[in-house]
Amino acid sequence: MDEKDLNLKNENLNSSDGHDEKIEQPAEKIQEVDNTEATPAYEENDNWKFDGEAQTLNSNVIENDVFEIHIPESAKYETAERPKKATPITPQDSPAKTSGIKGDKVQFILISIILAAVIAVLAVFGTFYYTRPNSNEKMNPGNIALKIDDTPISIGMYNYYYTCVTQNYITYANYGYYDLDTTADYNKQTTTNSDGKEVTWAQFFKDETVNQIQYITTYYEKAVEEGITLTSAQKKQVKENLSSIKANATSENVSVDQFLSDTYGDYCGYATIKKMLVQSYIAQNYYQQLSVNRKVSDKEVKKYYKENKEDYENVTFAYLQVPYDDDDGKSTFEKCNKYAEQIKSEDDMKKILPKACKSLIDSYVQQGYVEDADSCVDILTSNIEVSITAKEDALVEEGINWLFDENTKIGEVKAFDDSENKTVYILYKVSQPEPDKEEVYSVRQILVMPDGVDTSKSDVTLTDEQLAEARKKAQKILDKYNESGKTEYEFAKLAEKYSKDTASLSSGSSGTYGGYYGGVTQGTMVENFNDWSMDDSRKYGDTGIVDSKYGCHIMFFISKQPKYLYDCETDLKSKKEKEFTSSSTVKKYNGAVKKLKVAQPNQSTDSNTSSSDADNTVSAE
């Protein structure tokens, strides 16, 4: 998320006042000054896409809190001090006015006037104002890597995000999650981006960096417009993060700016990290508000389902997974075709399973996933039937197409070769495609527990006295809600502040916010929670308190609907979010490319390597 530009100087860590901890709020936006020598050429971007999965900020950077919303001034980006006054052009100096010249010559004369003003500025600041990057987040043209709408992104800020993005992918690649050789040239290895296009890993790193910056900056810009600011707890967290950076720099016996530059890349300094933290928190606050308030109508959901019907239909089938027992899989495929001819029912498939899947069973036993072969057979047999949608990719594409083809009859059996995974699947069709009509519900809840209870345990059982204490606390929280605007967002904020169920909060690992549980199936939650939520009389905005062995649950009802409509609604909201984040324009400054960081094979991405001295330089588009 995002923050504001602060005019901080590169000072040694030992300076007592070098880095002021004051957290300001956004004020007025910058106007750029062009310079003939150093004006960066930039391109309009019309093809940037946001990848919702990408993450840049570590979870410990952002924490939940009560939100403070008030109206600040419009956003401000500080630059070097402006000249007091350029030499004015008098009417006598203007041949256009004295001679009545019109048309193109007037434009020519206006250009001359602009150039005269630029020369006056250069006389005050010198060319370095335009050409030299800095770690102070001063937005002179030479320090701008990108622009997201009207918001300039510094070279140091780009390098910070680039480091986070590349280090994330490279770390997971080292654990085998990505097909990426971290010892080889990233320009000579390819991957598939979110649009299904094959690109080099070098280009992928750049694209993902810009996507992440665009995502956060778009939310930040809108947040500023809406008057959303930092909470008091977030201000405190920013200071703590910055203090930690200072301590790390001290331990390395270097200045803060040098420490950050060494860690994240050239021109990333104290002011850069401070700005990033503030912007990130503000953007997060707005994201959380929108996540609650972004609604879609029933009409929109039904229309979306009609247009994407195949994505929300399920087909049920039984299957056997048979690993290759030869290099090319030819003999395995022939063997599986013979098995398929013997299968006339699911029971036949279960009888064949121990023999057909012997190598898979032996592998599970050897790796310790199961105790013995018989146990493994029991597990595989009990899970032999599954349901999937057409958009899932867990199965070979040819097999999915066969299952969803209405000409494929129930009871038909066929083997499919998945050469990429060296596996043959034997599929038995159980049903024709149809939407999942099971009813699911969505609610928010605030879990209240009495004092002194260990909330980390899953087998908590409260006494009557403890439940009474929890009920009393829950009623006070519900009273606070009833005294507020009684909106879902107000309830969500109370959940963030008071709920003991971290799994449904932004501080947890599930990615949810405000006590949210969406698309819950019958019987998933404890009985009283489930019964209250499944009550047919429930309508949006209903609240109540229910008891369970864990404590008291303050409930807020959102909806109950068939599973396929819930899935449609969720995807439609995600689609609208992507449209929101990709609606901002991205301009790239070609003049900055030589100063942008480029990941090198056999090097940690937190080394300070720029494209100017890199062997695998990625040039700007």
Question: Summary?
Answer:
This protein is of the alpha+beta class. The protein has 18 helices and 15 strands.
Structure description:
The protein is α+β, with helices and mostly antiparallel strands and 621 residues long. It contains 18 helices and 15 strands. The strands form four sheets. Strands 6, 7, 8, 9 and 10 form a five-stranded antiparallel β-sheet that branches. A four-stranded antiparallel β-sheet has the order 1-15-2-3. A hairpin with a 2-residue loop joins β13 (543-548) and β14 (551-562). The longest helix is centred in the middle third of the chain and has 25 residues, at 201-225. The protein is globular and about 85 Å long. The two termini are 26 Å apart. The model is unreliable at 1-18, 20-105 and 604-621 (pLDDT under 50).
Give the helices and strands, then pairings.
Layout: E1 42-45, H1 95-99, H2 104-125, H3 128-131, E2 144-148, E3 151-154, H4 155-174, E4 190-192, E5 198-200, H5 201-225, H6 232-252, H7 256-264, H8 270-293, H9 298-307, E6 313-323, H10 330-342, H11 346-356, H12 358-366, H13 373-382, E7 385-389, H14 397-404, E8 413-418, E9 423-429, E10 434-435, E11 439-448, H15 464-483, H16 488-498, E12 516-521, H17 527-534, E13 543-548, E14 551-562, H18 563-582, E15 586-589
Antiparallel strand pairs: 1-15, 2-3, 2-15, 4-5, 6-7, 6-9, 6-10, 8-9, 11-12, 11-14, 13-14
Helix pairs in contact: 4-5, 5-8, 6-7, 6-8, 9-18
